[in-house]
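Postdoc handover notes: sequence design on the structure in folder B. Input tokens:
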């Protein structure tokens, strides 16, 4: 079943991972304040549970899950809620958030808590514990992890696919997590296999992380079927459908999910976060983030409290260089430019990349020369050239007919376009315009 195939199309952008690939993870000291947006995951935002003036301990809940596709938000440090209001969000908007001034002299010890014993729990109890722990997909999508643990009863899940591809240039968050915490990742795999009732798990890791592959292989369990599958380096292999194709040869049809081909995909960082719940009882209140790029003085892999402001994380990494021009949350292919240094690093923040003048020279766009390179690059076999023409003309409904919904905004088409047409950015705007049109009709 597992042939180690690759997916078709895709691109090979410069990896630029050398800045942090071998830099051990460090723990960042607690900042003076944290900003916790209620919207940090796909699904319904969390429901506020605290008021201005409340005191919270590290790990206390500040917002509850609002429904099944939602997770709670916990305080990542002990302190006092000094405001609840609109604050800059990494997605470029202003969003409701809890601002906590951290206690300067606190030992930051969480309250004593009961650590759930996973072996005695039913799958439904594991799902509830993972939801209560606020765990989301840490690879960037921030989809609540417990939802993936409870697929519909009529769907047969054959195996767990662990996503250690980390194909986005610059980022080394997953790489360092696998290299430094392989046991924790595998504990997460064990719990997830138990909850899903599957007997096989495969960890897909690109070959440019040999130390991560070696670290995982060294601690592979012998009592359950877990293997590491080294993968050819190719972007966007970390996209779920591409990873499934690369590892199993199976294609997820348009409009379908990984579970429809018998698989559930989970990121390595999310598995480590699940393991943490059953090791210490602590919810997701911190995460590993790569802070990198030639525009930051000391590129690093850090454990940061969720809600740390960008400016504090950058300051801990020595600050910006004089020629720093652009800051991205995420990598250069799919990342989001950050205009505001007060935006917080949230659960879904995989990394911060600071580009220099040299890296981000303004590029002029020219008319399409119909070279077809974008068609050859698109991993889901769309026609980006046609979609680009429709986007330029504002013909969004026709973009839908041309399968815009299948576009992952991976940026491969923009990357290869010799005319520098910002195709994927146009497709992202097209998706927003369509959503707005549909909301109006409804
Ligand atoms: S951004 Fe969309 S259209 Fe472009 S290559 Fe990626 S999936 Fe294809
Ligand atoms: S790569 Fe650019 S120039 Fe070439 S066909 Fe696609 S949109 Fe046109």
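Designed sequence:
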């Amino acid at each position: 079943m597992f042939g180690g195939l690759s997916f078709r199309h895709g691109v090979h952008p410069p990896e630029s991972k050398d800045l942090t690939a071998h830099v051990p993870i460090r723990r960042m000291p607690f900042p003076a304040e944290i900003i916790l947006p209620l919207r940090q995951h796909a699904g319904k935002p969390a429901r506020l549970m605290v008021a201005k003036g409340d005191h919270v301990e590290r790990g206390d809940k500040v917002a509850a899950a609002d429904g099944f596709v939602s997770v709670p938000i916990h305080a990542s440090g002990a302190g006092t809620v000094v405001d609840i209001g609109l604050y800059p969000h990494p997605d470029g908007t202003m969003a409701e958030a809890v601002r906590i001034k951290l206690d300067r002299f606190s030992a930051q010890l969480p309250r004593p808590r009961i650590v759930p014993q996973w072996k005695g729990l039913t799958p439904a109890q594991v799902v509830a514990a993972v939801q209560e722990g606020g765990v989301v997909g840490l690879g960037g999508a921030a989809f609540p992890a417990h939802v993936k643990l409870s697929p519909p009863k009529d769907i047969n899940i054959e195996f767990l696919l662990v996503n250690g591809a980390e194909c986005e240039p610059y980022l080394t968050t997953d790489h360092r997590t696998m290299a430094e915490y392989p046991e924790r990742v595998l504990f997460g795999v064990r719990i997830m296999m138990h909850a899903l009732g599957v007997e096989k798990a495969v960890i897909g890791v690109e070959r440019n992380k040999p130390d991560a592959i070696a670290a995982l292989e060294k601690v592979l369990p012998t009592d359950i079927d877990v293997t590491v599958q080294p993968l050819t380096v190719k972007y966007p292999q970390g996209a779920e459908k591409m990873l499934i194709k690369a590892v199993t040869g199976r294609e997820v049809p348009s409009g379908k999910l990984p579970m429809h081909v018998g698989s559930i995909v989970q990121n390595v960082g999310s598995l480590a976060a699940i393991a943490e719940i059953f090791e210490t009882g602590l919810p997701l209140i911190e995460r590993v983030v790569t802070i990198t790029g030639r525009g930051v003085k000391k590129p690093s892999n850090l454990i940061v409290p969720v809600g740390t402001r960008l400016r504090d994380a950058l300051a801990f990494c020595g600050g910006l260089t004089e020629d720093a021009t652009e800051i991205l949350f995420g990598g250069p292919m799919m990342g989001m430019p950050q205009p505001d240094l007060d935006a917080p690093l949230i659960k879904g923040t995989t990394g911060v990349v600071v580009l220099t003048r040299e890296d981000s020279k303004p590029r002029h766009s020219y008319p399409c020369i119909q070279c077809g390179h974008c068609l050859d690059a698109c991993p889901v076999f769309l026609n980006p050239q046609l979609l680009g023409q429709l986007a330029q003309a504002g013909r969004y409904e026709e973009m839908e007919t041309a399968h815009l919904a299948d576009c992952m905004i991976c940026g491969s088409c923009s990357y290869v376009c010799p005319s520098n047409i910002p195709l994927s950015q146009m497709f992202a705007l097209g998706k927003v315009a369509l959503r707005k049109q549909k909301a109006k009709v409804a």
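Context for whoever picks this up: The chain has a mean pLDDT of 94. Don't rerun without checking with the PI first.
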